[in-house]
Amino acid sequence: xxxxxxxxxxxxxxxxxxxxxxxxxxxxxxxxxxxxxxxxxxxxxxxxxxxxxxxxxxxxxxxxxxxxxxxxxxxxxxxxxxxxxxxxxxxxxxxxxxxxxxxxxxxxxxxxxxxxxxxxxxxxxxxxxxxxxxxxxxxxxxxxxxxxxxxxxxxxxxxxxxxxxxxxxxxxxxxxxxxxxxxxxxxxxxxxxxxxxxxxxxxxxxxxxxxxxxxxxxxxxxxxxxxxxx
Length: 230
Hints:
disordered C terminus
């Protein structure tokens, strides 16, 4: 299980405390081949291209702070990022193995903001599932205030590689770079709804209907093999 921390350049004090209190916990298949990654590191290993021609002289020319500048090239249309390595050789950065959750002797999670160093045990769910540890892979948190007391908290998870599923023993859908997300909708500070992404669509649930560990959603991503999707 992953206990993601928010990656945010702004102060966590600007984010309602209840967003962190009910942040989702993420299950991952123990036999996973490609783990959540850091997009900043991913960009160090790819080069922007347009018309099969590199745009920048070196990968360091673009990072997560200025990637939007690629929109100046043909309006951003047909601009793509190409790996500098042969992905068939499975370079280390592609699999994200260093982000495999570390299982402490006693499962814990860390709270953001002023309570980052506080450790609290995570209790197993109704099915007695063993809790895991914390991954170093960052999550991207986006907060949308919809008004009338409704706040949507999107948690985005990045994978450097997606290994597609097999159909009649032929694998389809391999691609570099993949985003998944979960959404928790709050009303007056209370979690009401959950949305779990699945490929280009997903499923929505009431908060009460979904499995939890303590008060936090405990199955934001179901155990799956082998791709990052549910």
